[in-house]
Known about the structure:
The protein has helices at residues 18-31, 59-64, 66-80, 101-108, 114-124, and strands at 2-9, 36-44, 49-56, 83-91. It has 132 residues and is α+β, with helices and mostly antiparallel strands. The chain has a 4-stranded antiparallel sheet.
Amino acid sequence: MHARLTTIEVPQDRIDDAPGVIQEQVLPQLQQMDGFKGFIALRDRGSGTVRGVALWESEEVMRTTDEAAARIRSGVEEATGGTVASVENYEVVVFEAPSGDPVSGVTDTVGGATDSVRGVTDNLLGGGEKQR
């Protein structure tokens, strides 16, 4: 598995827009791409930084999404008033996502977007585990 880590610097007054943009714009586009295995978004309110980790089944598949990912990043910049600070590619050497509370707990706190996020966690968990 491989991962693309994107860091976006978002103005403080727009930091709360990031989760909605990710759920409504980013995830639906990523989910349509072959080899997509999941997505994790991280937000640091203090610094105004949002990081997205897109998981791909292989380096080759990830590389084939470079152009589409650049378009998605541009859309996020426009929607949040942010700026892409960096894009880095990694090989995933350890990945653990228990099917119990840690992942389910995150989806339960997302509110109205639970179904969208749950779909991504299903992918992360291999799709076979039943969610709460």
